[in-house]
Amino acid sequence: MEKNTRLILALDVLDSDEAIRISEAVTGHVDAIKVGYPLVLASGLQIIGKLAEYASIIADFKVADIPNTNRLICEQVFDAGADAVIVQGFTGHDSLEICVDLARERNKDIFVVTEMSHPGALDLMQDAGEKIARMAADQKASGVVAPATRPERVKEIRKIIGNELAIISPGVGAQGGSAADTIMAGTDWVIVGRKIYQSDDPAKAAKDIVSEIKDVL
Ligand code: C5P
To answer: Which residues form the active site (predicted)?
Structure first.
């Protein structure tokens, strides 16, 4: 994934025509489009290949199973045309390792969730977040997912993983996080969903976030 605008669109719409229209509109303003269960369950896995015409595709399936099942899932998703898959880290080293090995063979990326961006992530996930970040670094995953809603956690996670791994951060806009604060905390890409795809003018919404990011670089 090339680091140009440092913005990733989280495309959680359900209709494939709408997904294509928004992707076309934001081309050039985003470095990648994150596609997850809402769009794929509503439109089918082939939507990944269609959207790959507009940007790199990160498949956010938060894969969290035993190693063999994780590999089967990642194979299907890479075969569908995704450039990267998001996997959960809490399942442990072997479940992660099989995904990272497969991605390496295929020249693709794995991003590992450390902790999530919503309030409930504080109940259980945050305690494990630093250990998961360390595991992702040891296994040389491409990067981790860390919350834009808690820039201080992005800073902590950056200290743990160093500069070899990327950080991608959801939670900007609808969940209250700020693109500028998250970039200043050390994230490489901010992930924005509703603020862009629910806007009357998604291209302008994306462009405004990119200017906010550029202003602090
Ligand atoms: O609409 P909004 O900008 O809040 O979208 C955030 C996106 O990032 C959603 O697709 C959500 O599932 C995802 N996500 C998140 N927190 C994480 C990992 C993924 O909000 N830790």
So the answer is: 60, 62, 65
Residue 7 is predicted with a pLDDT of 98
Residue 68 lies in a domain: yes
Its ipTM equals 0.95
- Distance (Å) from CA 107 to ligand 1 centroid: 25
For residue 78, the domain's CATH number is 3.20.20.70
Kindly give the number of the ligand 1 atom that is closest to the alpha carbon of 175. 4
Number of domains in the chain: 1
Q: Active-site residue 201, yes or no?
A: no
Give the type of residue at 73.
I
Rounded CA gap, 143 and 165, in Å? Answer: 5
- Count of CB atoms within 10 A of residue 134's CB? 15
Task: Tell me which residue range forms the domain holding 32.
Answer: 7-215
The reported pLDDT for the residue numbered 121 is 79
Global pTM? 0.96
Can you tell me which atom of ligand 1 is nearest the CA of 12? Answer: 10
Ligand 1 pocket at CB < 6 A: 10, 12, 36, 60, 113, 116-117, 145, 147, 170-171, 173-175, 191-195
In percent, how much of the chain has pLDDT > 90?
Answer: 93
Helices and strands: H and E segment counts in the chain = 10, 8
Domain annotation covers residue 190: yes
Known active-site residue 65: yes
| Structural domain contains residue 1 | no
DSSP state of 37: H
